Amino acid sequence: MAGARKVLHLLTAGKFFNSYIAYVSYEFRLTNILSYSALPLLVFSKIFSHEALETYLPKIQLVIQDTLRVWSSHPGSISVYCEAQKLTFRMAIRVLLGFRLSDEELNHLFQVFQQFVENVFSLPVDLPFSGYRRGIRARETLLKGLEKAIQEKLQNTQGKDYTDALDVLIESGKEHGNELTMQELKDATLELIFAAYATTASASTSLIMQLLKHPAVLEKLREELRGNGILHNGCVCEGALRVDTISSLHYLDCVIKELLRLFTPISGGYRTVLQTFELDGFQIPKGWSVLYSIRDTHDTAPVFKNVDVFDPDRFGQDRTEDKDGRFHYLPFGGGVRNCLGKQLAKLFLKTLAIELASMSRFELATRTFPKIMPVPVVHPAGELKVRFYGLDSNQNEIVTETDAILGATV
Ligand code: HEM
After folding, report:
1. 268 CB less than 6 Å from ligand 1?
2. Share of the chain above pLDDT 90, in %
């Protein structure tokens, strides 16, 4: 496993660091719920199966279209990272969990969730005004809000037109004679939102930034959509979006792959050494925690030429730079604990790219692009301010009433 040398990057030892990692893992690993409830991993593969994705897709598309309409009708610029966070939160709440919250309830829950996320990586020191205490408080409020939403969902099953991830979780518990308690449901719900939120918001923001920086890529994407009858006269044709259709769009696939190579949201992950081994002359003892770096792997893998250049064609049929080796490209991690939601994440990003190409013209509202910060997930250091304009079915800009009045008076 030559690639493993790249993957295994930094060794960590020491009580403090390990206990901190344990705290983060204990609190937030979705699959912890498996050990409490003995639900098989199969349940999670059901949640993210091809069939499930097919039912989520129209909902994902609706959430994205609504959001783009709001962005386009905004008279000024919008702050993309913050809005992308709201968008992925909304996707998790409405699509994955099927909660029917009002916009007001959703916004409130989002604010509390943000407070929780901001304090996730705080030291576990429980003092008044500490980040840890704020995080715990936000978590409690969140869990109360989630409990209310779950209760309503359990009582209100009428008029439901599709099965969401939470339904699968509840049903599978029953099937295995292991009905999930309310506490388990709340934990699973929170962890699902947490896993989907920051990573997908980061990648969505990077997508918009790269499409702005590379208009030729956006144009090539539009050509591919047009060629496949998806971008027909500028609008996404009703019923045209299916998971298989999206999977067959090769250039779109290259764009998303390249995005996740160069702007991989998560920089790495932790593993515990189960058996002492040697690497490059160093002995790594059993029981140590090791950190593998996704970002360094992507930066140093010899298969990628001009690593700093955003070049989707590197994954095209002529070059296929990723074809050699299993561990050069791992935006979703590697091994048995890799990302469970990767198909959903890719589907979401591809749908966003399709809708952006179809529904919007967008331009940077500042003179320069903000710098990129790599932690805790890749995100703009300042604000990424962008002005969005809606496009009609002929790909002409939609003129708002105010614009029309102003235009008439000039
Ligand atoms: C672009 C978006 C995403 C990226 C880049 C990403 C990346 C990752 C990575 C690198 C890991 C493994 C960390 C490790 O090695 O320990 C991971 C784990 C995980 N991800 Fe994602 N993720 C994304 C979106 C999602 C979404 C939308 C979901 C669905 C809710 C999700 C659910 C999970 C879960 C449940 C795990 C834990 C798997 C386990 O421990 O067995 N992710 N993700």
Report:
1. no
2. 51
- Band of pLDDT at residue 359, cut at 50, 70 and 90: confident
Find, among 40, 9, 52, the residue nearest to 334 by Cα. 9
- Whether 107 lines ligand 1, by a CB cut-off of 6 Å, is no
CATH 1.10.860.10 for the 2-409 domain, yes or no: no
CA-nearest residue, atom 3 of ligand 1:
199
| Integer angstrom CA distances of residue 117 from 13, 80, 358 | 26, 18, 33
Residue with tokens 């999670």: 44
Q: What pLDDT is stored for residue 230 in this prediction?
A: 85
> Residue 4: its pLDDT value, please?
35
The mean pLDDT value of the chain amounts to 82
Q: What gap in Å lies between CA 216 and CA 234, rounded to an integer?
A: 17
Question: Which atom of ligand 1 lies at the shortest distance from residue 349's CA?
Answer: 1
Point out which residues pair with 290 in neighbouring strands: 11, 271
User: What is the Å distance from ligand 1's center to 341 Cα?
Assistant: 6
Contact status, residue 309 vs residue 291, Cβ threshold 8 Å: no
**C-beta 80 within 6 A of ligand 1:** no
Contact (Cβ atoms closer than 8 angstroms) between residue 201 and residue 232: no
Pairing of strands 8-12, 379-380: unpaired
The reply, when asked if residue 235 is annotated as ligand binding, is no
If pLDDT is split at 50, 70 and 90, which confidence band does 5 have?
very low
Residue 3 has pLDDT above 50, yes or no: no
Check if 272 has its Cβ closer than 6 Å to any atom of ligand 1.
no
Convert the pLDDT of each residue in 192-235 to its tens digit. 898 899 999 999 999 999 999 999 999 999 999 999 988 765 56
Distance from the CA of 48 to the center of ligand 1, in angstroms? 12
Cβ–ligand 1 distance for 30 under 6 Å, the answer yes
Mean pLDDT in residue range 19-40: 37
339 Cα: distance to centroid of ligand 1 (angstroms): 4
Q: Give the dihedral sign, CA 317/319/324/327.
A: negative
Whether 266 and 287 have beta carbons less than 8 Å apart is answered as no
